[in-house]
Design goal:
heterodimer; A: 295 residues; UDP-galactose 4-epimerase, domain 1; B: 423 residues; Rossmann fold; N-(1-d-carboxylethyl)-l-norvaline Dehydrogenase, domain 2; 3 domains; eight-stranded mixed β-sheet
Chain lengths: 295, 423
């Protein structure tokens, strides 16, 4: 599916962020506020999305002129089982039901690159979704649920590995490496850290999302830089921020090596003058933010 | 038999070039087209297409060619080719209405003994479905190449002729005409001939896709595709004429038509076309090479950059912009200032509101941050990169087809990007 642009008759009236307290949601809300866009950030303490009253509660909060960004999800660190899957789907079911009642101007669903087959090394938006686990299946199902709202323009964003100072998750990558370095004085890799991945700074994810909202983009868009680096390179970049004392340690490999590159032509076409934060620069700024140094 | 009179119906690219080649062989031609404006223009020697040697050969053979809007004039012919260009939609599907209309007009006026030959590229099954009792009907594979149409029409490698029954000898008029070119004639059943044309093009696409795939790898690992190509061409299984030049995807419409046809037939008959779909995907991917290269070097770096683009046609020596990589690139540069030049195609076709139509190659370069050579017109190769360097504001040159040359550009202090080699 190509990314397209709907005609927004006027500028953004309000953006509702469902899952606003999360790492990405909070950054998007900050950037929207800087641009003077009114926002309503909803968190799990405002609405229990899986709860019985979620639809009615959301329906009172949403307006037909809103642009809605759905980021709320129970991430794999909260569970990888069927119960988590069903809870996530119930949350989406309620969000869709509420929007069904109120309508909205533009719906942006934050999915994941977990919808792609992990063994596929070169990914574009045309790559068929083929999730390998329940988390990927959850996101793909939620994408279809979102798109089934036929009268509402929908954009699905599929971000790659996101890093930044406020990340609370501990997924393998820059965020975990930073914590390892700080806590243990060393960074332990899977194997030699040969796997290649695309790492994107959260500020870029938020900036692209804001751009998509402002331009009324629809379709599917992978959120990635187009430049992939090995986990070892990332680990060494992180280690460098702590001085020479941090050791990057390899471990015996238990899983086969997989790589992931993004073909980002669609993103370039959508935003041809967008400038990504280079990985080295992003790692430095993240380190400074977490250590309280001025950026 | 006496020398047959040859007719052509449909005076666009295929019909016109084929007719002029036939006249140059010494035959008398009656060329019909229902479009009076086109026929008047042809009578005045004004051509609707750009092809090397076509104007000269038309002028030389003018007295052997009669252009007409009257289909009844074809009654005098012993052999009539129905040869309109068939347009394709965005998915590569042919519009067959035009040729069907033309077939009906021609059939209505032909003598029973006149041979009718379908020359336009049609999907398998098309010709047999048009057989009529008492009609001598054949299909002949066209091998027109944009920019080399006259050469291909005058000196064919072979004729592939579709027949209702390939065991029967060809009708005398057709055998006489084809025999005059002195090349092998391969009669076969209609469906085989129709699929032969597609097969030829699939082999070409396979070679081009292989070249594109490996050229990209060269760009990443420090190999140089231009060093590898001679080794491949000396391999007898590949051959010296193999299509091994990397490019910006498949364009022009004809190959795309065949790719679409194979997919449509594979879907209908349940055969595997996975590799064909991969070629299509590869073609789309390579088309964006220039955009992907410009993005990190220029678009994401500079405030309001200016891009110079040389070439709009989908290839050199043609006016066609069908699926042109240049136009595709310009579609995605709409927010930027562009300066374009093409020797044949007007800048009016450019979809950008911030476009300047330059009067020359160097005029296009004036003050630009980057130069992109999107069509390998030979005249571009005569530009001195030192002059380019003096006119550009920046240093970036994208030369996918190696028109300017890496060494000359490097010597001129330019940052040079091409297909199949590292920058």
């Amino acid at each position: 599916m190509n990314i397209q642009q709907i005609n927004l008759s006027r500028k953004l009236e309000r953006v509702v962020l469902i899952g606003a307290s999360g790492f990405i949601g909070a950054t998007i809300q900050r950037q929207l506020s800087v641009q003077g866009v009114p926002t309503l950030g909803l968190t799990s303490s405002d609405v229990d999305l899986a709860g019985a009253g979620a639809v009615a509660q959301l329906a009172t909060l949403l307006k037909p002129t809103d642009s809605v960004v759905m980021l709320a999800a129970l991430t794999p660190d909260k569970g990888r089982d069927v119960n988590t899957l069903m809870k996530n789907l119930a949350m989406m079911q309620n969000v869709c039901a509420a929007i069904e009642k109120t309508g909205c101007k533009h719906f942006v669903y934050f999915s994941s690159d977990a919808v792609y087959d992990p063994s596929v090394s070169h990914v574009s938006e045309d790559t068929p979704a083929s999730p390998a686990d329940l988390y990927g299946a959850m996101h793909y199902t939620r994408e279809i649920m979102a798109r089934s709202r036929i009268n509402i323009p929908v954009l699905v964003l599929r971000p790659t590995i996101v890093y930044g100072a406020d990340d609370t998750h501990n997924s393998y990558g820059p965020n975990r490496f930073r914590r390892m370095a700080k806590k243990d004085g060393r960074i332990t890799l899977f194997g030699e850290g040969e796997e290649i991945r695309d790492h994107i700074h959260v500020d870029d994810v938020a900036a692209l999302t804001v751009n998509c909202l402002l331009h009324g983009r629809t379709g599917i868009l992978n959120i990635a830089t187009g430049i992939s680096r090995s986990f070892r390179e990332v680990a060494e970049l992180v280690a460098k921020q702590f001085g020479s004392s941090i050791e990057v340690i390899a471990t015996p490999r238990t899983n086969p090596i997989t790589h992931r590159h993004y073909e980002v032509s669609k993103l370039i076409k959508a935003f041809p003058n967008f400038c990504f934060i280079a990985l080295a620069e992003g790692v430095i700024s993240t380190h400074r933010q977490t250590t309280g140094e001025s950026v | 038999m006496t020398t047959p009179i040859i007719g052509y119906a449909g005076m666009t690219h295929l019909g016109l070039n084929s007719a002029v080649a036939a006249a140059d062989r010494g035959f008398e031609l009656i060329c019909y087209d229902p479009d009076p404006l086109l026929v008047s223009a042809l009578d005045r020697g004004e051509l609707p297409v750009i092809e090397p040697d076509l104007p000269e050969l038309l002028q030389k053979n003018a007295r052997h060619i009669k252009f007409t809007v009257d289909a009844n004039a074809l009654t005098a012919c012993d052999l009539v080719y129905v040869a309109p260009d068939l347009s394709t939609d965005d998915t590569g599907r042919s519009d067959l209405e035009r040729i069907d209309a033309l077939i009906r007009q021609v059939e209505a006026v032909l003598r029973p003994e006149t041979v009718m030959v379908i020359l336009s590229q049609v999907p398998p099954g098309f010709t047999r479905a048009r057989m009529r009792p008492g009609r001598l009907l054949h299909y002949q594979v066209e091998t027109l190449i944009f920019g080399r149409a006259m050469e291909r029409a005058r000196f064919p490698e072979r004729f592939i002729v579709g027949c209702a029954d390939p065991g029967q000898p060809l009708p005398a008029a057709l055998a006489h005409f084809l025999g005059s070119f002195g090349c092998p004639i391969l009669p076969m059943r209609y469906e085989s001939a129709e699929l032969a044309k597609i097969s030829i093009n699939m082999c070409l696409v396979a070679a081009v896709s292989t070249a594109n795939t490996l050229a990209e790898l060269c760009e990443k690992i420090g190999a140089d595709w231009s060093e590898i190509v001679p080794a491949l061409k000396l391999d007898k299984r590949i051959g010296q004429y193999a299509y091994l030049a990397p490019g910006l995807g498949i364009a022009g419409g004809n190959l795309e038509r065949d790719l679409a046809t194979v997919c449509i037939f594979a879907d209908r008959y349940g055969t595997d076309a996975g590799v064909v779909r991969a070629w299509i995907a590869n073609s789309r991917y390579r088309r964006d090479w220039a955009l992907r290269t410009l993005y990190p070097e220029i678009l994401s770096k500079l405030e309001d950059p200016v891009i110079a683009v040389l070439g709009l046609a989908y290839k050199q020596d043609t006016h066609s912009i069908k699926n042109s990589p240049s136009i595709a690139l310009l579609e995605h540069l709409k927010q930027f200032r562009v300066r374009v030049f093409d020797p044949v195609v007007s800048a009016a076709v450019v979809p950008n509101s911030r476009c300047y139509g330059a009067i020359s190659e160097l005029d296009a370069c004036d003050g630009a941050d980057a130069l992109v050579v999107m069509t390998p017109w030979s005249q571009f190769g005569r530009i001195d990169p030192t002059d380019i360097a003096m006119r550009l504001r920046g240093k970036v040159v994208l030369d996918p087809y190696v028109v300017l040359g890496a060494v000359a550009c490097h010597n001129a202090g330019l940052s040079y990007f091409t297909l199949g080699a590292q920058a």
